[in-house]
């Protein structure tokens, strides 16, 4: 136990500031009203769906829980059930074998909900392309609010995409969250 | 190289590791399987191909075996109207699923095979259209049939419940289906159904230029992008009889060992987390993040995708970079040693790790368990030591092995390999030869073949390549990428028997097998 405390003390605080939003990532017109977004943005739950990725995007999404990005410190966490989720984070060119699972997960997520497609495959421009086994882009299967390109996108870009989706932009938004 | 009891015209391929190729008939196909099994060799891969593009046409089934001297690729031609071959599963358990996959993708059938259920085929494409057949037209618009109702094996008995898990899993992880039969919390049986991330990769290879397809190979399994890109480039260079410069070989090994460290740092943290030691995940994920950031700064990509290219590497290392890399190895080693001592002394953690998810040495040999998982069950196969190719012939890799076969053993092997790679990287940097980092080359006209074989962090990655080059350009006719997860997924089904359901995530993570690498 003492060793654990000592290691924690030695490591210190590593968390970095969250990134600014980027409206250029936005795909759909606004699906959720501003007031709802102000609430959603404070404590957001995410259900991640790997719809056929190469697992590179999953590595970077998992990095969001590391001390540098500190996703949970921003009030955002991953949940196991789509019924508890506010936002779906979807990767991959949507393999035909995952098409039904993705659709059912989307339908099981209660409104209001957002969808962020992660990676070049999710955005529809990855190397796998549309073929006998793939649907193409996440937007070809479920409505998408924000698409984050990259192969894979760095965790900071994925986080930027999530914050853009809930319009949690800049220092004002996080101060506002802290005040409440 | 000889397969005992067989006279085969073995052609050695110009690859840095010992790899031979031969065409066989059906009798030799079966005799070779028996001989390799008797000699305690391994079946590495089995795959089918449509040879309609070649004179003679028809189909083919191939098997790649690992023997003490090296790898042998045996190629059995099959008639177009009778695409059948002798079943290998009585000799090699891992052939079962590979044969089912070959039937799904190419329509070739193993005579006498007991399990003929579709494996990668979930009913998303027409039953009479085999994805790897050379037919014209656009399959993506073809009518689909309804999803297959997969016949899982049922367990009967008082109090037996079935728990279906997936394809969407609780955490941030790839999709697959696990069907548990449990009594109370104890697992009686686990049956997997995979193929959910099947993207048609092998078909996609035939649409890309050979000199560009290393990018696709590097995305078969993103966490092993370096191993796959190297294996593909090795196969392409073998087909073109191209020797990469010495500096390129050493740089490739540098990237491979960096990938191994990143993977083990991630897994060690995740394993601590799966046993409820969140501190472990916080520490190891921080170390992994530091590691990936240096890869980004020095190589331009956190995961090092597209850094190994045909002929060599896309990156180089100068003195300043070498010093940064060396310093990071030293710093990481100090922290990892401290964390290992915390792991070893943590009673709660050891209580979860020791004895959980055990695969005995006998079972590991019987199932053909390979790579990291095999070494944790007493096997001692590691291509870097067994067939030490440049620069490993100079570096001298110490194979990590542990006989316990449980989660604790797979943790111990990861720590040992982590420390070994942190020793190898400075050794590579200290002895990096001068010269070019890349060579130009051309494919020979006509048909050519090549193979690549690399010890990725999970185990041996193997790539078989068939090319055709003429006035119209270069074409990939067949590229088969083999992930070591094919051998190990069936082992997971055995490892969980008798364990409690809540230990499944821990056991699964201790193997950390690839879904995408398997599904193709």
What CATH architecture of the largest domain in chain B do you see? Answer: Orthogonal Bundle
Highest-level CATH class of the largest domain in chain B: Mainly Alpha
Mean pLDDT of chain A: 88
CA gyration radius of chain A, whole angstroms: 17 Å
How would you state the average pLDDT of chain B, rounded? Answer: 95
- Chain pair sharing the greatest interface: A-B, 51 and 59 residues
**CATH top level label of chain A:** Alpha Beta
| Tally of structural domains of chain B | 3
Domains of chain A, number: 1
Overall 3D geometry of chain B? Answer: globular
CATH superfamily of the largest domain in chain B: Cytochrome-c3 Hydrogenase, chain B
The CATH topology of the largest domain in chain B turns out to be: Cytochrome-c3 Hydrogenase, chain B
Walk across the major sheet of chain A and give the strand order: 2-1-3-4-5
Could you describe the largest sheet of chain B, including whether it forms a barrel? 5 strands, mixed
Measured distance between first and last alpha carbons of chain B: 32 Å
Structure explained in plain terms:
The complex is a heterodimer of chains A (180) and B (520). With 180 residues, chain A is α/β, with parallel strands linked by helices. Chain A has one domain (41-179): Rossmann fold (3-Layer(aba) Sandwich), CATH 3.40.50. Helices cover 36% and strands 13% of the residues of chain A. Chain A has a 5-stranded parallel beta sheet with strand order 2-1-3-4-5, with helices on both faces. The longest helix of chain A has 13 residues, at 96-108. The termini of chain A are far apart. Mean pLDDT of chain A is 88; it is low at 171-180. Chain B has 3 domains: 11-120, 2-Layer Sandwich (Beta Polymerase, domain 2), CATH 3.30.460; 161-193, no CATH class; 201-519, Orthogonal Bundle (Cytochrome-c3 Hydrogenase, chain B), CATH 1.10.645.10. Chain B is 39% helix and 19% strand. Chain B contains 17 helices and 15 strands. In chain B, α5 (225-239) packs antiparallel against α6 (246-274), α6 runs antiparallel to α16 and α8 packs antiparallel against α14. The longest helix of chain B has 29 residues, at 246-274. The radius of gyration of chain B is 23 Å and the shape is globular. The model of chain B has no long low-confidence stretch (mean pLDDT 95). At the A-B interface, α1, β1, α3 and α4 of A face α3, α7 and α8 of B.
